[in-house]
From TrEMBL:
This is Uncharacterized protein. Residues 422-602 form the DUF4132 domain. It comes from Uabimicrobium amorphum. Residues 717-821 form the DUF7737 domain. It comes from the Bacteria. The lineage of its organism: Bacteria, Pseudomonadati, Planctomycetota, Candidatus Uabimicrobiia, Candidatus Uabimicrobiales. Pfam families: DUF4132 (PF13569), DUF7737 (PF24879).
Length: 833
């Protein structure tokens, strides 16, 4: 009976054919456990046949290490010494030793070794076993150096007789290596893919085709044989330049090839292939990415490139998958190509992408190309954005005898269906669902894209307040009033018209521009200039007239304009001179602040547990005015953080404006700039303050919560009050509502209530008991159509919803609300739920 042989890692190699190799590994392991480091010098000095035996032994050990065993890690605890200070510590052999053995394998495999076919088979079987044992742990699936070493061996002419045996085993390694690309398997996978492909066929045509399994590749493969033979030459040349931009030699040959291709045919087919990239849900295979990248570069050489398809390819390439982006290389190639094309149409495509892409890297690259083309065309960013606005898509479709109509309400869209009899119906007709699923999908996409564009253009229009831009009357008509998409918004806005010494504010109505009195402004001509009207600087009487006009005509503005809050410098701010404390000392939710800053073009880096200091700053750059507005943010003293370490609650501090070198006096900031900046900050505070949270009553910072929930009104709340004072008399609950001071008072059937016009929080008479109503309950109730003269003030809509609910408090069925109302009034609360 053979003597039992067990290594220091508890591996039993008594019956192993590679016992000699294991003896070397025993010494290697002991050197690491008992000395300053793992010593592989002796192994690397052995003859190559001996090194191969050591390699097999190492793979045996690695395979064994990955087989699940009861108490496997517990029984391998030994004393190990630090490399530097030799202090004893307890460690796990498998965690420490086996990465060193894998490194040893990598080093042996990197050398040219005289492997036999049996060696190759055994090595690959071991690699497959290790990978299969780690399907749930892809970072352990790859043994470094194995695949490159074996492929290096198989590529040699004298060893090619091993390929038929090796291929099935190599195929089994593709999936685990693909899953482990984040952990070092990507290069091995690429090498494996290329080798398997090269061994499949020597036919140049077949070798030039992309691999299947991707939408765009399948489409290309199905169409290529119908195209002229020159297309195979394009395919063969496309992946030659494996770099970020094409080389001079690649471009030179590409130009010769493109001359023999029909432009229309190129745009049709390549355009379709590129557009298919939006359907991909996995990372592109490496070979396919190089081919498609070449075709993107070809687009820069044709007279009428498929720009829309190039844009689609950017969106597709920057889509997220579980393994990362679909293919950032394709997006980079598209950015290069759009820059090379350089036309206004290419620039418009970049602006479109800027509104649709979310990838930070993608947005950064888009902006870089926009800046280059902007300078080339000598245009400002605002001018570029104006001409890049797309036209409104078709809004009506006939399908299977039914009609679909995309309905636009403000910036929201919906699809209204009409059946074969022409009557409206809520759901999609059955015959459309069954017979025309793709057309149905396309209609929904048009509706969604239209809404996205309207929301983006609404935000751009509102930014015009800070841009202070004017246009000639004819240019304004072309780019704003009559532009099919923008006109949905611009015809509801008030504009300021000037000619010589004359000026008038007007709005589009019934086919003409009228003033606040309803009279047509007849002197508008090519000499007239137009800009977006801002209420600051105009009399309160004129502003009030515009508010009444909009309310009378029931015109809903896309954002507050006539009802816009105006902020002027206070006496306290004249005293502080260079800063304002108007919005200091609020406790706000940082995640909401971050979102609002992004929406309003402010820059803000969140405060987290990683910060050494406790201060942050939200900034708005006003480049045209050489100013930067800064809103100071501090740690609030609350230690709660998100799972990512972001501080949940922060406190606000002063606001100031920074010029080229120093703080600017507030009185020197243009009045409309000051007003708009302070309005943004009021928005930040009013939305993100913990004082708005109806469930915060028992939380920290109670004194602040109470003072904000029922304290003085800010400018935005004061505007809300002004609006409600005109709206309430028109509502069916007018008889039970009144406004006094900072509250909307509501007389319910059971109790009387007062709703704070700033926070929307509620107190109940007679003892000012707090009533908590969460927003989800409000959303479930339908109050009918209540006209509001502007979009965007969700707090106003919430207050009105609460007023309708409380006016009919005897019909409330929510138990949590009833339990609060019935205190001291149980006899008045209806029974049941």
């Amino acid at each position: 009976m053979a003597q039992q042989k067990i290594g220091p890692d508890r591996f039993d190699y008594t019956n192993s054919p590679f016992a000699l190799g294991h003896q070397f590994l025993d010494a290697f392991i002991e050197s690491g456990l008992n000395g300053p480091g793992f010593d592989k010098k002796d192994i690397m000095q052995q003859e190559k046949p001996t090194q191969i035996i050591i390699l097999h032994a190492a793979l045996e050990r690695i395979t064994w290490a990955h087989i699940p065993k009861k108490n496997h890690f517990l029984i391998t605890l030994v004393k190990i010494k630090h490399e530097q200070d030799y202090n004893d510590r307890i460690g796990c052999v498998l965690d420490i030793v086996y990465p060193e053995i894998e490194t040893l394998v990598q080093e042996i495999m990197s050398l040219t070794q005289p492997y036999t076919p049996e060696d190759v088979e055994d090595i690959l079987i071991a690699a497959v076993n290790i990978a299969q044992l780690n399907l749930k742990h892809p970072h352990h699936a790859v043994t470094p150096g194995l695949i490159p070493g074996i492929l290096k061996h198989l590529k040699k002419k004298r060893n090619q007789n091993c390929i038929p045996m090796a291929k099935p085993l190599l195929q089994q390694l593709k999936e685990p290596y693909a899953a482990s690309f984040l952990y070092g398997g990507e290069k091995s996978l690429k090498a494996l893919d290329n080798f398997l492909e090269d061994s499949e066929s020597q036919d140049p045509k077949i070798k030039s085709l992309p691999k299947g399994g991707e939408h765009w590749a399948e489409l290309l493969i199905s169409q290529i044989d119908k195209l002229p033979k020159i297309w195979y030459k394009l395919l063969q040349h496309a992946p030659v330049a494996n770099r970020n931009s094409p080389s001079t030699s690649w471009l030179k040959k590409a130009q010769k090839l493109i001359k023999d291709v029909d432009d229309k045919q190129f745009c049709k087919y390549v355009g379709n292939w590129l557009s298919e990239l939006k359907r991909e849900t996995k990372r592109l295979q490496d070979k396919n990415a190089h081919i498609l990248k070449g075709f993107v570069w070809y687009c820069s050489l044709v007279s009428k490139p498929p720009l829309q398809a190039i844009g689609d390819a950017v969106e597709g390439g920057l889509k997220k998958t579980p393994q990362g982006l679909v293919c950032s290389k394709i997006a980079a190639a598209c950015f290069y190509t759009l820059e090379q094309i350089g036309t206004m149409e290419a620039l418009m495509q970049l602006i479109r992408l800027k509104m649709r892409i979310k990838s930070p890297w993608g947005l950064e690259q888009i902006q870089l190309v926009i800046d280059k083309l902007k300078d080339r065309h000598q245009m400002t960013e605002e001018q570029i954005q104006e001409i890049a606005v797309p036209q409104l898509s078709k809004l009506e479709y006939e399908i299977a005898g039914c009609r679909a109509q995309i309905v636009i309400t403000g910036t929201q869209t919906s699809v209204q269906w009409f059946n074969t009899s022409g009557k409206t119906q809520k759901s999609v007709p059955v015959q459309v669902k069954k017979q025309h699923p793709q057309q149905l999908k396309d209609i929904k996409k048009v509706a969604k894209d239209t809404q996205t564009m309207l929301v983006a253009q609404k935000a751009r229009l509102e930014r015009l307040f800070l841009a202070d831009i004017s246009w000639s009357y004819s240019l304004w008509q072309e780019r704003y009033l009559n532009q099919s998409l923008l006109s949905v918004l611009t015809k509801k806005l008030i504009w300021l018209f000037k000619k010589d010494k004359r000026h008038s504010c007007g709005i589009y109505h019934d086919g003409k521009i009228i003033d606040v009195n309803g009279k047509q402004i007849k002197w508008l001509d090519k000499e007239t200039t137009v800009q977006l009207w801002h209420p600051i600087g105009f009399s309160s009487n004129e502003v009030l007239k515009w508010r009444e006009f909009l309310e009378h005509k029931e015109i809903v503005q896309p954002f507050k304009q006539a009802h816009r809050e105006v902020y002027i410098i206070t006496d306290a701010e004249f005293t502080t001179d260079t800063y304002s404390n108007r919005f200091a000392a609020h406790i706000i939710k940082q995640h909401l602040l971050t979102t609002l800053c992004q929406q309003r073009n402010w820059q803000y880096d969140v405060l987290g547990s990683w910060d050494s200091g406790d201060a942050g700053v939200a900034r708005l750059k006003l480049e045209k005015w050489n100013l930067t507005a800064e809103f100071m943010i501090h740690y609030s003293g609350d230690d709660s953080t998100s799972p990512a370490g972001v501080i949940n609650y922060v406190s606000t501090d002063r606001v100031h404006f920074v010029g080229a070198e120093d703080y600017v006096r507030l009185c020197d900031v243009p009045a409309f700039i000051f007003s708009e900046v302070m309005r943004d900050i009021d928005l930040f505070v009013s939305i993100s303050s913990i004082g708005n949270d109806p469930q915060w009553q028992d939380g920290d910072h109670y004194e602040y919560w109470e003072s904000y929930s029922f304290g003085d009104l800010s400018e935005s709340a004061a505007m809300r009050k002004d609006t409600l004072e005109r709206l309430i008399p028109k509502l069916k609950i007018a008889d039970v509502c009144s406004i006094e001071g900072k509250y909307l008072y509501v007389k319910g059937k059971i109790r009387h209530y007062k709703i704070h016009l700033g926070s929307g929080n509620i107190l109940m008479a007679p003892n000012d008991q707090y009533l908590c109503i969460v927003q989800d309950v409000i959303k479930q109730r339908k109050q009918g159509n209540v006209f509001l003269p502007f979009a965007g003030d969700n707090r106003l809509a919430l207050i009105l919803s609460k007023a309708f609910m409380l006016a009919a408090d005897d019909k409330i069925k929510d138990k949590t609300i009833l339990a609060q109302i019935e205190v001291n009034y149980p006899h008045l609360v209806p029974n049941g739920t």
